[in-house]
Amino acid sequence: MKELWSPQKRQAQALMNNAFEVLYGGAAGGGKSDFLLVDFLSGANDWRDSWKGILFRRTYPELESLTDRAKQLFLPIGAIWKVAERTFHFPTLSRLQMRMLESDEDVTKYQGQAYTWIGFDELGNYPTDFCWRYMMSRARSAEGAPCYIRGTANPGGVGHAWIKARFIDGREPGKIYREKDGLTRCFIKALIQDNRKLLDNDPDYLKRLEMLPTHLRRALLEGDWDVFAGQVFDEFRREKHVVKPFPLPPGSWKRFYALDWGFAKPFSLGKWAVNSEGRMVRYGEWYGCALHEPDTGIRMGAGEAAEKAWGDAIAEGVTECVADPAIWNKTDDGPSIAEKWEAAGFKMIPANNDRVNGLVQFHQLMKTEGEDGKPMLLIFDHCTDFIRTIPVLVPNPQRPEDVDTKLEDHIYDESRYACMSKFAHHPADALRKQNGSWNLGKRSATWDPLEDSA
Fold first, then answer.
1. Structural fold of domain 238-445
2. Which of 439 and 43 is assigned the larger pLDDT?
3. How far apart are CA 81 and CA 91, in angstroms?
4. Which residues lie below 8 Å from residue 117, measured CB to CB, with a gap of 6+?
């Protein structure tokens, strides 16, 4: 008798994973829907009528297609499909509801419900994490059955940014992480090469993926979460721009800080170093963002933040900080934000806030390679919030030469200040040293990139 279904290697890895949250996918053709359907069965025999699941798709046609595949797998093992209920009933008395979930508002219909297994097929179709987090609260069992929530996704789609932040950034595929709330989370990366059945049955599928435009090929063939259609910095490559930390001796590197201030929104303090070739390295960062709440500030006062930052700065030999010119503005009779940072010890320098030329400069540093073949802008791998936010920026629809400021652009703004600062310029940029200063046209600086920054 022909075997009904057997897992591919990556599917088997995911099916054995006992993390509470699992995201499976990363590229087209990885067998995502089959993983979800079979994963539901994991507790059906042991927990029988206590095992209750629900599986979502965003649109009705997508749900119908998923239901058809579920019938192929479930009906031969004795399941009954009840059309009126849109539910599969199994001989074990366990059951799986198939539901359409179109918007954030729709998810509140499940208030008061309890499920041991929850699944989202094509999670990237959801623009925010609200549905996912809301349904996590519905994962419970009065009988003590284990509870799981499972999702599938490819890079791209309206939910790209939050999925990347939740499952991809700073995480190793296949490794289970225990979060601060005590729950566990894991990403299983599956590529088309992991689905031998599909490649054997349709050998030309791989060729069709290879013919896609660059951003789609990177997303759907390589499972690259740092790329999607319409992104501003499509030149960003994690394997090129993100590096392990290396020494930055003061005789060769000039260190300085850059600041984009925020209170209700996050603030970003970037730690930068530049050498005589003009290579810039982001060697550290402090991002004042609330835990698990992207684009939400920690509401720390400017004076307190400055004192904390100055402790690091002294240890690193840093005194100068380039910052948004707006922080010199006063809103009452007290000191400005800039004055509070100066009171802590910093020499505060108003940034060049030319957004258009700043974007050009940022692009140029990312795209240009030094004599060693490495980009002129490098990021140490512990700067996880830069790595998370920069690749997902898109153009401003009203001003395409700038980024969309409605997005989480605080690290970009701070980095732009750094790239446009006097510290980012060097002799190779056709500048010449005159009377102890670099000739910068309208701007001038009095430091030498080779002198000891301490």
1. Nucleotidyltransferase; domain 5 (3.30.420)
2. 43
3. 12
4. 39, 40, 42, 43, 51, 52, 53, 54, 96, 147, 148, 149, 150
Rg (CA), the chain: 26
pLDDT at 15: 94
> What CATH number does the domain located at 9-220 have?
3.40.50.300
Strand arrangement of the beta sheet that strand 242-243 belongs to: 242-243, 377-380, 280-287, 268-275, 253-260, 320-323, 347-350
Model confidence pLDDT, tens digit, residues 292-334: 788 999 999 999 999 999 999 999 999 999 999 999 998 788 8
What integer pLDDT is reported at residue 225 of this predicted model?
Answer: 82
Residue whose pair of structure tokens reads 């579920």 in the numeric block = 70
**What confidence category does residue 426 fall into, taking pLDDT thresholds of 50, 70 and 90?**
very low
Bridge partners of 285? 270
Q: Which residue has the higher pLDDT, 198 or 172?
A: 172
Domain boundaries, the chain: 9-220, 238-445
CA–CA distance, 247 with 231 (Å, rounded to integer):
32
Cα separations in angstroms, 10 against 104, 127, 191: 31, 27, 9
CA–CA dist 279, 377 (Å, integer): 6
Distance CA 40, CA 24 (A): 14
Contacts of 323 (CB under 8 A, 6+ apart): 258, 259, 260, 261, 338, 341, 348, 349, 350, 351, 417
Dump pLDDT digits (tens) for 370-404.
Answer: 989 999 999 999 999 999 999 888 888 777 778 88
Give the CA-trace dihedral at 282, 286, 288, 294, to 10 degrees.
50
Single out the residue of 92, 88, 90 nearest to residue 66, CA to CA: 88
Mean pLDDT is highest, among 13-17, 190-194, 234-238, for 13-17
Question: Which pLDDT tens digit goes with each residue over 242-254?
Answer: 999 999 998 899 9
